[in-house]
Design brief:
The protein is mainly beta. 13% of the residues lie in helices and 34% in strands. The chain has helices at 27-34, 76-80, and strands at residues 2-9, 11-12, 40-42, 47-48, 56-57, 66-70, 85-91, 96-100. The two termini are 22 Å apart.
């Protein structure tokens, strides 16, 4: 299974968290922990079942924090025009990352 993630630095989606916070939640392990239920996750360790727009700035974030969103659920052009993003494609089977800027 391949998932394309869009990272949006400095922003978060409020609510729809799956369970408790997971330390060091990353692109590499989000699929193993949550499967297809996780449509987004933030760098603070919260996976989410849904994304609520507009995204909001988080007071809890450091300079490199943000949210990863499954690109299949949000039209990329709509968020590219609003947020500073980059895309990340991950093949969970091979656990390789292909960074696209």
């Amino acid at each position: 299974m391949t998932t394309q993630w869009v990272f949006i630095r400095g922003f978060d989606s409020i609510g729809h968290d799956i369970g408790p916070r997971v330390d060091k939640l990353s692109v590499d392990n989000v699929a193993r922990i949550y499967g297809e239920r996780a449509r987004a996750f933030n760098t603070l360790g919260f996976a989410k079942t849904h994304v609520v727009l507009p995204l909001v700035r988080s007071a809890y974030y450091g300079p490199n924090d943000g949210i990863y969103i499954d690109a299949s659920i949000i039209p990329e052009r709509a968020i590219q025009e609003t947020y500073d993003i980059f895309s990340l494609t991950v093949d969970e089977k091979d656990e390789k990352e292909d960074v696209k800027l």
